[in-house]
Specification:
This protein is α/β, with parallel strands linked by helices. Helix content is 42%, strand content 15%. The protein has a single domain (8-191, 221-244), classed as 3-Layer(aba) Sandwich (Rossmann fold). The chain contains 7 helices and 7 strands. Helix 1 runs parallel beside helix 2 (40-52) and helix 1 crosses helix 7 (222-233). Bound molecules: nicotinamide-adenine-dinucleotide (NAD).
């Protein structure tokens, strides 16, 4: 028996990185998956990988920050699976590191649209269904960037701080309904989003330094975030609600300091 046996789940941003790893793990744990990504080819590849591993999944191209698309992916899951138990609102963009004085309102709006309004829309539309069945788990990807500075640009960090607040307030909006809402705050994970950082470090030969600021002294892998997402999605987390859980090798537990040279 998998930990998500019989669950019907949507994963957004499932075409790459954390979303793909989570879709694969959810399926391995027995869930039926609607894998959503704005990039159709990428999410089709994820579904192929799930099918090859013996899992059940459907691909759908949609923009997680557009309400009509969110309604469409919810309806698709309900139609294909006959219900919905889990939504992992994971799709996100970094927006790069633009100097503050060069940031435009449009730059901010696009990052907030995808990273914060996307999870809000997932919560709004999944929540309506889940409240009716008096059960459901909604998981969002925030970031350590939402906890403190220096893990992303200003709008990215603000969007992720917004996600942390969103899961706290939404958990209370669902008071007494049985619907849980939580977030994960990943540290530095090797994915499509962080590829430029890893490429640059490998080019310079400094890749051994990646992750040196956290007590694990290494970067993380998508499967390590997927493991937390699967736990939060499952009934094992039945009393975990309104939390933003860091999966960061201990980075957010650590004050900045200079380590003694070995
Ligand atoms: N990689 C890290 O170090 C890290 C750290 C903290 C948080 N995160 C967060 O993890 C989540 C997943 O990112 P990742 O690192 O796996 O990056 P990734 O770029 O590998 O994957 C993100 C996926 O989301 C999709 N996507 C982007 N905008 C979308 C939209 N509007 N609608 C639908 N799909 C969209 C992309 O096409 C891509 O497939 C993001 O929310 C990101 O902010 C990542």
């Amino acid at each position: 028996m998998g930990r998500l046996n019989g669950k019907r789940a949507i994963v957004t941003g499932a075409g790459s990185g954390i979303g793909r790893a989570s879709a694969l793990l959810f399926a391995k744990e027995g869930a039926s998956i609607l894998a959503v990504d704005k990039t159709g080819d990428a999410v089709t590849e994820t579904v192929k990988q799930i099918a090859a591993a013996g899992g059940k999944a459907i691909a759908m191209a949609a923009d997680a920050g557009i309400e009509a698309d969110v309604i469409a992916y919810m309806q698709r899951a309900l139609k294909e699976f006959g219900g919905l138990d889990v939504v992992y609102a994971n799709a996100g963009i970094s927006g790069g590191l633009v100097p503050l004085f060069e940031q435009t309102v449009e730059h901010w709006q696009e990052i907030l649209r995808v990273n914060l309004i996307g999870p809000f829309l997932a919560i709004k539309h999944a929540g309506q269904h889940m409240v009716g069945q008096k059960a459901g788990s909604i998981v969002c990807t925030a970031s350590v960037a939402g906890l403190r500075a220096n893990a992303g640009g200003n709008p990215y960090s603000a969007s992720k701080a917004g996600v942390i607040s969103l899961v706290q307030t939404a958990a209370n909006s669902f008071y007494g309904t049985g619907v849980r809402v939580n977030a994960i705050c990943p540290g530095l994970i090797e994915t499509g989003m962080t590829k430029p950082i890893f490429d640059m470090a490998r080019e310079r030969g400094t890749d051994r330094n990646i992750g040196q600021l956290n007590p694990m002294n290494r970067y993380g892998e998508p499967r390590e975030i997927a493991a937390m997402a699967a736990f939060l999605a499952s009934d094992e987390a039945s009393y975990v609600n309104g939390q933003a859980i860091a999966v960061d090798g201990g980075l957010s537990a650590t004050h900045p300091f200079r380590r003694p040279r070995p």
